[in-house]
Amino acid sequence: DAGVTQSPTHLIKTRGQQVTLRCSPKSGHDTVSWYQQALGQGPQFIFQYYEEEERQRGNFPDRFSGHQYPNYSSELNVNALLLGDSALYLCASSLAGTGEKLFFGSGTQLSVL
Amino acid sequence: AQSVTQLGSHVSVSEGALVLLRCNYSSSVPPYLFWYVQYPNQGLQLLLKYTTGATLVKGINGFEAEFKKSETSFHLTKPSAHMSDAAEYFCATHNTDKLIFGTGTRLQVFP
């Protein structure tokens, strides 16, 4: 049983560009959450998707958007990249109603130059 | 708002020594509390969690944590450190289907 898979593992972009990160949830999970982990910090909640809708959102600007597909996979899009967007982006999946049972992927390391 | 505070960004111990990583929570209601471990270049792995019931929670790799309401604490301990325990440890609480993490404690283990 594959766990949560994220792609790519590493990405380098320049300021002003746009980026898309991808996540496939653990088999049987229908809810996907995204977290940003800046260097030396704990992960910060970006948003959560369930039934292809954004269900809740953390304190992130509209430059951060997402999508969930019918097969429950998800994308995180960041527009107009800033240097401060450099971070490890973690995807976590769960089954609806069991949000305390999160499974995390290994993350995508985004570097903005 | 619920939050957690981890005391000490770095902790160093000798192999075989006691590991103690501190976490205090702020919550007006009984919280769900978690400890996660992150090895270099990897995602987060759940060590243990407290929801309700027994206040001493045993996790993987010999770790345990005790929920103390009177002290609003949920400290992580391991009787004897191993070199493989070197990693970043995060305390977290749960609020409306999302996790709220502390800033992390980096554990170094010396031979």
Order of helices and strands of chain B: EEEEEEEEEEE
Gyration radius of chain B (Cα, Å) is: 13 Å
Query: Distance N terminus to C terminus of chain A?
Result: 37 Å
Number of helices, counting only DSSP H or I runs of 4 residues or more of chain B: 0
What structural class results from the helix and strand content of chain B?
A: mainly beta
Give the C-alpha Rg of chain A: 13 Å
Task: Name the shape of chain A in a single word.
Answer: globular
Described by the principal axes of the CA atoms, the overall outline of chain B is: globular
Give the % helix of chain B.
Answer: under 10%
User: Assembly state here?
Assistant: heterodimer
Overall strand count of chain B: 11
* Strand composition percent of chain A: over 45%
Number of strands of chain A: 11
What does this structure look like?
The complex is a heterodimer of chains A (113) and B (111). In chain A, strands 2, 4, 5, 6, 9, 10 and 11 form a seven-stranded mixed β-sheet that branches. In chain A, strands 1-3-8-7 form a four-stranded antiparallel β-sheet, with no helix packed on it. In chain A, strand 9 and strand 10 form a beta hairpin. Chain A has 113 residues and is mainly β. Chain A starts with a strand and ends with a strand. Chain A is 0% helix and 50% strand. Chain B has no helices and eleven strands. In chain B, strands 2, 4, 5, 9, 10 and 11 form a six-stranded mixed β-sheet that branches. In chain B, strand 7 and strand 8 form a beta hairpin. Chain B is mainly β and 111 residues long. Chain B is globular and about 40 Å long. In chain B, 36% of the residues are buried. The model of chain B has no long low-confidence stretch (mean pLDDT 92). The A-B interface holds A 4, 31, 33, 35, 40-45, 48, 55-56, 58, 90, 92, 94, 99-100, 102, 104-107 and B 9, 32, 34, 36, 41-46, 49, 51, 90, 92, 94, 96-104.
